[in-house]
Design brief:
The chain is built from two helices and six strands. The protein is an alpha+beta fold. The protein has a single domain, classed as Aminopeptidase, CATH 3.40.630.30. Strands 1-2-3-4-6-5 form a six-stranded mixed β-sheet. The longest helix has 16 residues. The protein is globular, with a radius of gyration of 14 Å.
Length: about 110
């Protein structure tokens, strides 16, 4: 969560599925008036680094809206499986493997 004064301006939800060891990042949101300032990249980097360093997670899963595939790919996430609808919006499952070398993508993600 990122704050400016007393207001939340960016947020992600990080959670473990009931099957231990399956971790997700979800509900990535940036307040409309704070978009295009790099907060989405910053909070994703913080979430990824938290899981890979503090929780010693090996694999992160996300459910990405299709129009954001490039955004998440820049962090090293790879789409898998077929597209599906979630709340009427096209999505794809994506995964990020800690062991797989990541491209130098200017996202600041330094987990490899």
């Amino acid at each position: 969560m990122m704050h400016h004064h007393e207001s939340i301006v960016a947020y992600t939800r990080v959670y473990e599925e009931r099957q231990a060891g399956t971790w997700h990042i979800g509900r990535v949101v940036v307040r409309k008036d704070w978009r295009l300032k790099g907060l989405g990249k910053k909070i994703m980097n913080q979430s990824i680094n938290f899981l890979f360093t503090k929780q010693d997670v090996e694999l992160i899963l996300i459910s990405a809206q299709e129009y954001l595939l490039k955004f998440y790919s820049d962090f090293g996430f790879e789409a898998f499986g077929e597209a599906y609808l979630e709340d009427g919006i096209p999505h794809r499952a994506m995964k990020l493997d800690k062991k797989k070398p990541q491209p130098d993508n200017n996202c600041g993600n330094s987990h490899s």
